[in-house]
UniProtKB/TrEMBL annotation:
Its cofactor is Zn(2+). PANTHER family: GLYCEROL DEHYDROGENASE, GLYCEROL DEHYDROGENASE 1. CDD domains: Gro1PDH (cd08173). NAD(+) binds at G98, K99, A100, I101, D102, T120, A121, A122, S123, S129. Pfam families: Fe-ADH_2 (PF13685). This is Glycerol-1-phosphate dehydrogenase [NAD(P)+]. Catalyzes the NAD(P)H-dependent reduction of dihydroxyacetonephosphate (DHAP or glycerone phosphate) to glycerol 1-phosphate (G1P). The G1P thus generated is used as the glycerophosphate backbone of phospholipids in the cellular membranes of Archaea.
Length: 353
């Protein structure tokens, strides 16, 4: 008897383009959201976007509450939940990079309220996804949540953000190649739940981005357009899979471990990009796709070495040899690499010298 079922949650409105930040109030109206919003933001995005959006709400007779978070932690999620309850808000708006959007997503899920996602940087593919990513001691949780009711991605705002944020978003997408390799491996070896549609969408997204690398240049608003579409598409793949598997494999474990060993040293997307070069080598050896991944990262100005990440070689090796233990997710790292093997892959791929 056929007993399968699935429930794929996706946003109702996705608004992308020049100047659309002025349309957040209209998007709220379109969704028939009533009452007071809570803006969840972080310091720079507050100035860049949350303050102007708040002025639009005030002009429309609505007084938003605002909470500014500094880090993606469970404590920050708790703080947002408490503020939402104290301020008696009825929905949330995440305005910022991955940190602010993840926290808004997880808090709104707990509060059983809707939320809107307003990215100020094209730096990560969590803009539209149904997951939050939070460090917790020695581990890193991929927290189930709901996707935003709507995304409002202003390409002018995204193009004016520092260029390295956009290259980080590109690298987060390019890392989908190895995330999918890991997922297929885990399917073959461990029979994990797998969706060919989600895997193919994730891979295709990386391919389209790489094919359009010529359009991705600093100061070019079209870059923000191309990258935003890829970030959304990758997020949809995660929502279809109901897992971050299509976009997070061993290269993400490596990055999560770097976050613990060298906090704040480099952007999430840049770390996963460098991790992806090495895990592609582990999958395919000398003739595998690791050079293609490195060339793609190079072509959009993303880091390809430990030095460019601003992280020393020994920390890279420590992350490589320990990151398999971060979470129970089978990848090419299996039950862990020893130090000699880690040094070999990092040296052969020129990540360390
Ligand atoms: N849920 C999911 O599916 C996914 C989640 N993630 C998560 O997202 C996070 C990474 O995202 P990322 O955006 O790199 O992290 P942050 O939100 O920390 O943003 C990175 C930096 O960009 C700054 N910034 C954001 N917008 C602008 C702007 N317009 N102008 C100038 N500076 C700006 C931030 O400023 P400030 O310091 O003031 O905040 C911060 O310093 C990680 O926590 C990662 O785990 C990543 C991918 C998928
Ligand atoms: O960053 C992600 C996808 O790009 C998802 O993060 P996790 O590794 O925490 O699932
Ligand atoms: Zn990522």
């Amino acid at each position: 008897m056929f007993e399968k079922s699935t429930w794929i949650r996706l946003p109702r409105n996705v608004v992308v383009g020049h100047g659309v930040i002025d349309r957040v109030v209209d998007v709220v109206d379109d969704l028939h959201l009533q009452g007071r919003p809570l803006f969840v933001t972080s310091p720079t995005p507050k100035e860049v976007a949350a303050d102007p959006i708040a002025a639009d709400f005030e002009a429309a007779g609505v007084d938003p509450a605002v909470v500014t978070v500094e880090e993606a932690t469970f404590e920050a999620v708790e703080e947002v939940i408490e503020t939402a309850e104290a301020e008696e808000v009825s929905y949330l708006v995440g305005i910022g990079g991955g940190k602010a959007i993840d926290i808004a997503k997880m808090a709104s899920h707990h509060l059983e309220m809707g939320f809107l996602s307003v990215p100020t940087a094209a730096s990560h593919d969590g803009v539209i996804s149904n997951r939050g990513s939070v460090p917790d001691g020695d581990t890193r949780h991929s927290v189930a949540a709901k996707p935003p009711l709507a995304v409002v991605a202003d390409t002018e705002v995204l193009a004016q953000a520092p260029w390295e944020l956009t290259t980080a978003g590109c690298a987060d997408i390019i890392s989908n190649y190895t995330a999918v390799m890991d997922w297929r491996l885990a399917k073959r070896l461990k029979d994990v739940e797998y969706s060919e549609y989600a895997a193919s969408l994730s891979e295709m997204t990386a391919e389209i981005l790489v094919d359009n690398a010529d359009l991705i240049r600093p100061g070019l608003e079209e870059s923000a357009w191309v990258v935003s579409k890829a970030l959304m598409s990758s997020g949809v793949a995660m929502s279809i899979a109901d897992s971050s598997r299509p976009a997070s494999g061993a290269e993400h474990l490596f990055s999560h471990q770097l976050d613990r060993l060298a906090p704040g040293a480099a952007l999430h997307g840049h770390q996963v990009g460098v991790g992806s070069i090495m895990t592609a080598y582990l999958h395919g050896g000398e003739d595998g796709i690791w050079r293609d991944i490195r060339d793609a990262l190079n072509s959009i100005d993303a880091p390809t070495t430990a030095d460019e990440l601003g992280i020393d070689d020994e920390t890279v090796l420590e992350a490589l040899t320990t990151c398999h233990a971060i979470r129970d997710r089978y990848t090419i790292l299996g039950d862990g690499m020893n130090e000699r093997a880690a040094r070999e892959v990092a040296t052969k791929t020129r990540v360390i010298s």
